[in-house]
Amino acid sequence: MRVFVAGASGAIGRRLVPRLVARGHEVIATTRSRDKLEQLRALGAEPALLDGLNALAVAEAVVRAEPAVVVHQMTALADMSGLRNFDRGFARTNELRTRGTDNLLAAAKAAGVRGFVIQSYTGWPNIREGGPIKTEQDPLDPRPPKAQSETLAAIRYLEQAVLDAPVEGIVLRYGSFYGPGASDPLVELVRRRKLPIVGSGAGVWSWIHVDDAAAATVAAVERGSPGIYNIVDDDPARVAEWLPYLAEAIGAKPPRKVPVWLGRLAAGEAGVSMMTRIRGSSNAKAKRDLEWEPAWRSWRQGFRQLASTGAGDQPAFGRAQAA
Ligand SMILES: NC(=O)c1ccc[n+]([C@@H]2O[C@H](COP(=O)([O-])OP(=O)(O)OC[C@H]3O[C@@H](n4cnc5c(N)ncnc54)[C@H](OP(=O)(O)O)[C@@H]3O)[C@@H](O)[C@H]2O)c1
Per DSSP, which regions of the chain are E strands? Predict the structure, then answer.
């Protein structure tokens, strides 16, 4: 089928496009940058220039492409630095999640598109009460740290907009990415001992190898029913567990430990929350309903691979992926 991938040149898009092409789909892949057009063509796609915030251009591009499915992978996180001013760092991404989503949905409607798959996020948006692992049915955090409130509002907005639209809308809540092109800044922070364990380190994180996120996206495009899916690995883990493990795996010294008051000074309330209070996510629904399995079932193997290949290119374990 014809698949329009908006934001095809990013961490997920670059891994998704070749998988779609390998499955026989015709892929229209967008970027804002002329320099990246050839790279997208080399991945097997028809490249297209597009600014997702230009409603008219989006409408024209989608109508011209006549896709069966639109995939929204537009974020603006490449220059993100630190967690302290969280909403400020996510401001452009939040625009892409609100205005950018509206533009693509309006275009999809005008073009008579059947399916719409959108990138969302799971982890810190989960309610921070009760058990350590949340499903898609658990509420999002009704009282997020102030610094994350605009970003959570944008996530709520995009999810509702897609579920309410006259398309088969699928929301993929990816966990935290790692893998090729997806975790270099994190690895660098850990290598330089700039990412300490704050307080108890009891915040629970759900990771996903970027290739598993891409495989889940192919499954959603091909056979997903409308709804929300957590796309995470099988092994939600506390910061106090995964951070020293990552340091050891990449040959760095163990992370420093700092008290909460010092963590708050450096990373603000949002940073402290992510280190001490957030909940992880279950992938049971995606496994069951998308017939998808992460090849990298745990970040434990994935992080080791980051060290040995530099980027975690080859899954050396796990069942074959469904897509
Ligand atoms: N779940 C997660 O943990 C998660 C999710 C997303 C990203 N990240 C991380 O964030 C870092 C940066 O992500 P990234 O490499 O994907 O880069 P990014 O800067 O977030 O860009 C993602 C995609 O959005 C496109 N884009 C940005 N602004 C746009 C606009 N106004 N109109 C149309 N398209 C637009 C980019 O295209 P052009 O710039 O080519 O136009 C690119 O294709 C990576 O480390 C990644 O792992 C993590």
Answer: 2-6, 26-31, 46-49, 69-72, 115-121, 133-134, 168-174, 176-178, 197-198, 204-205, 207-209, 227-231, 237-238, 257-258, 280-281
